[in-house]
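Pilot study result, target chain (105 residues):
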Amino acid sequence: MKILAVTACTAGIAHTYLVAEKLQKAAEELGHEIKVETQGSAGIENEITEADVAQADVVIYAHDIAIRGASRFAGKKVVDVPISLAMKQPKSLLATIEKKLAAKK
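Predicted structure:
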């Protein structure tokens, strides 16, 4: 599964980057490809490109504030969760998404 994720927390510091790392690790452990864009206090980092969007199976928003540039993902399957859920259960979140996508095929 090719996953894109965008993380953004209220302060744009700790949780934004911690969740990015946790999602990256969980995806690798489950055998998925992932690119995580962070929208933190330093601005947008590891920005998702049009080519990334074209190849993605799913987009995850893990956030507590509005995602900037959400219109880029129009037409994609989007999973929208609070940043706390992605922080506490990243592997479970990805496994659930994987099962739901497999069931729709």
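One observation from the pilot: The chain has one domain: 2-103. A full batch analysis is planned for the follow-on phase.
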